[in-house]
Amino acid sequence: MVRVHELLTDRKTVSFEFFPPKTIEGAVALTRTLNDLQAVQPSFMSVTYGAAGSDRQRTADAVVAMQRERGTPTMAHLTCVGHRRHEVEALCDQYAAAGVENILALGGDLPADGSAPPPGDFRFASDLVDFLRADGRFSIGVAAHPEGHPRSPDLADDRRNLARKLMAADFAITQFFFDAENYLRMVDDLSAIGCDKPIIPGVIPITNAGQVERFASMAGATIPDWLREQISAAAPEDVEQIGVEVARRLSQQLLDAGAPGIHLYTLNKSGPSLAVAGQLFAASF
Ligand code: FAD
Q1: Which of 33, 159, 252, 260 falls between 20 and 30 A from 195, CA-CA?
Q2: How confident is the model at residue 1 (pLDDT cuts 50, 70, 90)?
Q3: Ligand 1: which atom is nearest the Cα of residue 106?
Q4: Which protein residue has the closest C-alpha to ligand 1 atom 21?
Q5: Cα separation, 64 vs 99, whole angstroms
Q6: Is the CB of 106 under 6 A from ligand 1?
Q7: Is 17 among the residues known to form the active site?
Q8: Is the distance from the beta carbon of residue 201 to the nearest atom of ligand 1 less than 6 Å?
Q9: Which ligand 1 atom minimizes the distance to the CA of 141?
Q10: Relative to the CA of 52, which ligand 1 atom is closest?
């Protein structure tokens, strides 16, 4: 059984997200990380896609290699921005031929340098979901933003769009957040408008104060005052330990409240994610 939505009916999942390495050193480090994380028997793994398709080939190469060489289902992230139908078709064919059965359909980030992306055939993630549903070969995941998408005019509008998109897909994975209430409120809001598909919370173990501020401002995630104070009072070498404890506590709370699994943003490092998942695994999985 390698389709994520089927795994979710079986037991609570633990999954890990990676970015495709850009250098030989990065590839060696990722291999080491993947080897380390085998200790907690991941349910599935996922590989991100660069802004406006900038990592297209690197993502495809990493997904295909991980799917073929490891016994763990690997999910490819795929974005709308700057993509033509025939390009998405070619990627889907490549994935299906390699045995990849899971795709995370995303709107996609805009190019980091502020340039206009090339023209594309898909506007919203839901367009990509419809395309993949018609294709029929994949279990389809989508992104959910517990605090609302930063470009949304208001939360209710974002929830309606998310519900429509998720009803056509199989499951969602969230942007990271630090307060379990953000996730629980979103699940309740969606349920109230008739959407009860599984939503896996995405959890980030903080390893670096500056980095989390940058990521949070891009993702529209709030860093609570208590956490910001704890991190700024800590010596840099102690931040990782705090990050692990905060992520472990949050994950446990979410699982206890009924979350179907935990998706850890690894940033290609094994230590913090292993520490979080290892403790949860012993207690919950
Ligand atoms: P959409 O669902 O298209 O939503 C984007 C905005 O449009 C929202 O405000 C939504 O409310 C609105 N909207 C949606 N449908 C409609 C409609 N029909 N009419 C009007 N408004 C609408 N980015 C990458 O580039 N590469 C990655 O690998 C990547 N991985 C991610 C993984 C996860 C788990 C998450 C949570 C995010 C990831 N992202 C990634 C970021 C994501 O691409 C961005 O947040 C992007 O800006 C929005 O993506 P989306 O899929 O939510 O888009």
Answers
A1: 252
A2: low
A3: 51
A4: 161
A5: 8
A6: yes
A7: yes
A8: no
A9: 34
A10: 25
Going by alpha carbons, the residue nearest to atom 2 of ligand 1 is: 125
Amino acid at 230: Q
Strand partners, 200: 173
pTM exceeds 0.90 for this model: yes
Q: Name the residue at shortest CA distance from atom 33 of ligand 1.
A: 143
DSSP code string of the chain: ---HHHHHHHS-EEEEEE---SSHHHHHHHHHHHHHHGGG--SEEEE---GGGTTHHHHHHHHHHHHHHSSS-EEEEEE-TT--HHHHHHHHHHHHHTT--EEEEE--PPPTT-PPPPP-S--SHHHHHHHHHHH-SSEEEEEE-TT--TT-S-HHHHHHHHHHHHHHSSEEEEEE-S-HHHHHHHHHHHHHTT----EEEEE-----HHHHHHHHHHHT----HHHHHHHHHS-GGGHHHHHHHHHHHHHHHHHHTT-SEEEEE-TT-SHHHHHHHHHHHHHT-
Structure confidence by residue, pLDDT tens digits, 225-273: 999 999 999 999 999 999 999 999 999 999 999 999 999 999 999 999 9
Contact 104, 76 (CB under 8 A): yes
142 Cα–ligand 1 center, Å: 8
Question: Residue with the nearest Cα to atom 50 of ligand 1?
Answer: 107
